Amino acid sequence: MADRADVIVVGGGVIGLTTAVCLAESGLRVKVWSSLLRERTTSAVAGAMIGGPVFSEPLSSTVRWQRASMDEFTELAKDPRTGSRVARGRLVSRLGNSIPPWATELPGFQPCTPAESAGFPVAFWITSPLVDMPVYLNYLIDRLIEAGGDIEVRTVNSLEEPATAAPVVVNCTGVGAAALANDDQVHPIRGQHVVVENPGLDDFFYEGGVETDWTCYMPHSSRVVLGGNAAPDNWSLTPDDTQTQAILARCIAIEPRLATAKILAVEVGLRPGRPTIRLEPDPTNPHLIHCYGHAGTGVSMSWGCAREITTLLTNP
């Protein structure tokens, strides 16, 4: 690949890598600049269930982005090397007393029986792509390299730096956009997961509608990601043992087989919170595209956002 790129994507999480893949496969020369190795990004610790309702703003766009991503991950699930598989699981909520109308439109919808509801007043089954993120991020990197792209681990202190190395810059820096894009609407939403050996689980479980502490587990081939919680404006990446024990207790109460599962890791990530997801050219520089602020929906919006950016740059 020539030293001079057509586009530099800043940020090596799922939004940045997916965008780089789409741009490279469209024929552009692409480099990714990332301050973090793949395994240290927030994306690497995501549970990554793609289905479920969409409430993020701008709503008309986020619904479209998620639908595009659902289609892509469903197709990727045909290849085990991607880390994506279509799984069955329960969505539950302690809020309300009836299944909301939107739920009946989800793939694989089926109300839970009383025995399956785990005591939640709202409980139903769906099918959804479930993504093993470390495997998937490696797949994206391989796909980017195969398309002629490149990745460089480097700290970016200003978006003017990549602008000197390529005519177009795409800013996919997540929570880092608070400083790089001077955006005071961006803030960290700290989340912690506990990863355990898989004791034989196949179905996922996710409690929605809770802002701070909820119950979820996402099984992959050899491990299960347990959660979850959200702490706005908390920058700490240090695991909290009290939260670890609370997550384990909540998940074991739903699935007793987790009680004897070996703990493999406790992982912390900073979701990039923002009142609305930002995907647009910079108002002062049409050669700078911003794409950040996805909070906990980055994986489920990734392909839709990446393809929209590709359209912006290849069909001006």
Automatic annotation (TrEMBL):
Binding-site residues, FAD: 42-43, 156, 173
Enzyme Commission number(s) of this protein: 1.4.3.3
GO CC terms of this entry: cytoplasm
GO molecular function: D-amino-acid oxidase activity; FAD binding
Residues reported to bind D-dopa: 217, 271, 296
Keyword tRNA-binding tagged: no
Ranges of residues in domain FAD dependent oxidoreductase: 6-310
Catalytic activity: a D-alpha-amino acid + O2 + H2O = a 2-oxocarboxylate + H2O2 + NH4(+)
Record key words, sorted: FAD, Flavoprotein, Oxidoreductase
InterPro entries per record: DAO (IPR023209), FAD-dep_OxRdtase (IPR006076)
Cofactor: FAD
First-level EC class: oxidoreductase
Gene Ontology BP, a term: D-amino acid catabolic process
Family the entry assigns: Belongs to the DAMOX/DASOX family.
Name of the protein: D-amino-acid oxidase
Organism the protein comes from: Acrocarpospora pleiomorpha
Taxonomic classification: Bacteria, Bacillati, Actinomycetota, Actinomycetes, Streptosporangiales
Gene label: aao
